[in-house]
Amino acid sequence: MTEEQNTEEKEIQDLIQTMKDYLDKEYLAGKKLRNFHPKMHGLLKGSLSILPDLPEELKQGLFRNPGVYQTWIRLSNAPPKVKSDKPASGRGLAIKVLDIPGEVIEPDPIGVPTQNFLLTTSPILSAWNISLYAKAIKAVLFGLWEQIKFAVNPSHWRSIFLTFKYSKKHDNLLSQTYFSGGAFKFGPALFVKFVLTPNDPNLGYTLDQAKNENFLKSQLIKDCETKDHAFTLNVQIHKSDALQPLENTSIAWEGALIPVATLNIPKQSFDIPERIKMGEELEFSPWMGLVEHAPVGGINRARRRVYKELAAYRKSKGID
What gap in Å lies between CA 75 and CA 219, rounded to an integer? Predict the structure, then answer.
């Protein structure tokens, strides 16, 4: 390996060890929740409908032909600690598209080929390289002293500013826009980011009680038991490094949103033990997907190793 590759490998190993140490510290015995997005609001059944008549350049991979695929959709809070829904924060929406055709990069433990989309309410990832990412994670996980050490370093100030800029208070998970953060291949010639936009952005908080620590889940239960919902999956196409950088995830891409599919969420009741258990056990990774949609960039390379090793570690320590 080159010196640069050796440095990246060491940074990834240090990051993995930091997260394992946190799991051991936070969950001394029994089940260990995932490091990323541990507070789940719900696991929903849905379907992804690939739109007909896409431009020729977008007929790639999963989007080559019109079709309908069954999905699992996991909604969550983004922070690595389970906390109240009331403060400003990031939210996550992960989609697992089932039984897809084509060659996948990594097999899914569920036993069928899948395409995973990991999305959050922030259009950027505020830590734009592995070294900064590892330091930021340590600051978040290990308390006030680590946070002070991180905050006093001027080279970290932009990351801190961006984190606060894109943290928001949310009233309803089904009315948010979700972003892929990192970039992905889209066939042999294109790079894109994925953006999921709500079909009903005016949904809000409608429960006849004050917001409690878990109000987002309560609102989601009511909304899903009342009617169907939908989102549009769009792509933004990379045209220049100035407007759409591939490596620097801290810069929000400029460019049109091009619809490629519809995510449909039928009316359902999901707050049942079997679904909750499944939502905790499912693994999500941007590397579980088609070769045509391979993730790009240093942060995505780190996520490949980190997600895989931590999922295995959680299981070895008794997720069940």
Answer: 12
**d(C-alpha 288, C-alpha 284), whole Å:** 7
CA 196 to chain centre: 12
Burial class (CB in 10 A: 0-12, 13-18, 19+), 145: exposed
Distances (CA, A) of 192 to 176, 239, 257: 20, 9, 10
- Taking the C-alpha atoms of residue 96 and residue 118, their distance in angstroms, rounded to an integer, is 9
Q: Can you give the pTM of this predicted structure?
A: 0.92
Question: Each residue of 243-288: pLDDT tens digit?
Answer: 999 999 999 999 999 999 999 999 999 999 999 999 999 999 999 9
Contact 292, 187 (CB under 8 A): yes
What are 219-243's pLDDT values in tens digits? 999 999 999 999 999 999 999 998 9
Query: What would the two tokens of residue 201 be?
Result: 């952005």
